[in-house]
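Appendix C: a fully annotated inverse folding record. The material below is reproduced so that readers can follow the format used throughout the book. The structure is listed first as tokens, followed by the designed sequence.
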């Protein structure tokens, strides 16, 4: 395989949109319909696809050709950091999980192989941050992964990432506190109100739900509090620097 620099960056071959805009196909903010809406899917996936096409060209292979799947298998078997994280993700879409038969990382929650694939995927971010992947790129990567396998995450987490994705595409990154407020409003049934926001400032400006903190501490069972404290592997930021907002606090 062609040689690459250690931890080559990804998703930087396409200029980010200047602002969010409605999707001409699904009518929601562009990107929010991922992956069901074809326009939203193409808008999001282009950042991954162009890096993959560059790798194919370096290997003198063509997209959809006989050697593409073999290349995907080699990328996934290679050491972490040899290829852009976008190529790792795209390679996962071209192979099947040996246990459940679907895209690795998107199978049933009890699929051990999918869990292993997910763990290996995020090791790139933890080793490559902050030089090879920014907090915003990490958040964009997490959002795409969550929306490709929504059944593997809590509904509140999925809805929060769906709300945020259009703004992540234009380079906006909310703080931990802002995301916590967004999540609280989703829990309170305010998704439709949040979905009507057309700017990151408007979305992140929703006030804190008064009952959020007390309800979390007083009304959850101990088991639920322990689960929330433990968190989800995808919910931990990739070692953000001091003063930098965490990429995926939901």
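Designed amino acids, in order:
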């Amino acid at each position: 395989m062609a040689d690459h620099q250690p931890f080559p960056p990804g998703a930087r071959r396409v200029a980010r949109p200047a602002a969010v805009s409605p999707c001409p196909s699904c009518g929601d903010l562009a990107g929010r319909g991922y992956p069901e809406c074809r326009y939203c899917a193409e808008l999001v996936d282009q950042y991954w696809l162009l890096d993959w096409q560059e790798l194919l060209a370096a290997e003198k292979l063509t997209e959809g050709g006989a050697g593409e799947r073999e290349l995907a298998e080699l990328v996934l078997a290679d050491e972490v950091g040899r290829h852009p994280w976008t190529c790792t993700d795209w390679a996962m879409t071209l192979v099947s999980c040996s246990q459940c038969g679907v895209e690795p990382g998107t199978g049933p929650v009890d699929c051990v192989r999918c869990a292993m694939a997910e763990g290996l995927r995020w090791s790139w971010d933890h080793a490559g941050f902050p030089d090879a992947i920014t907090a915003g790129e990490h958040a964009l990567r997490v959002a795409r992964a969550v929306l490709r396998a929504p059944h593997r995450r809590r509904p509140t987490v999925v809805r929060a990432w769906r709300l945020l994705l259009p703004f992540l595409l234009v380079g906006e990154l909310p703080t931990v506190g802002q995301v916590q407020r967004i999540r609280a409003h989703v829990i309170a049934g305010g998704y439709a109100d949040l979905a009507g926001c057309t700017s990151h400032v408007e979305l992140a400006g929703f006030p804190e739900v008064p009952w959020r903190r007390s309800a979390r501490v007083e009304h959850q069972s101990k088991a639920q509090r322990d689960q929330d404290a433990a968190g989800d592997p995808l919910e931990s930021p990739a070692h953000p620097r001091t003063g930098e907002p965490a990429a995926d606090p939901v």
